From TrEMBL:
InterPro entries: PE-PGRS_N (IPR000084), PPE_sf (IPR038332). It comes from the Bacteria. It comes from Mycobacterium gastri. Residues 2-80 form the PE domain. Coiled coil: none annotated. This is PE domain-containing protein.
Amino acid sequence: MAGIGSTISAANTAAEAATTGLIPAALDEVSAALASLFSAHGQAYQGYQALSAQAAHFHDQFVQALNAGANLYASAEAANASPMQAALNLLSAPGQALTASSPGSPTQQPRRHN
């Protein structure tokens, strides 16, 4: 998510320079009118830049909130896993004790009869 914000910011910066500082290509009326049109577009683009800056700020806050939520989720999972494992060990201990002491269990060596 953070990469999306930086990509949009870089594109906005590149576009701003290309649209706000145009000079007429020639000294005729058509070139002057086109340069004026593009300059007006560049001025409107500055309004977009202000809105884009607000959106970028919102995006940064959103990414921070997502990261904070992910960290809280991971902490909660870790905190809940430890007591659950202890309870599982407590409940499975009798069964493990029975299977560990039975003949032929993998934890015991088979007895040799001479």
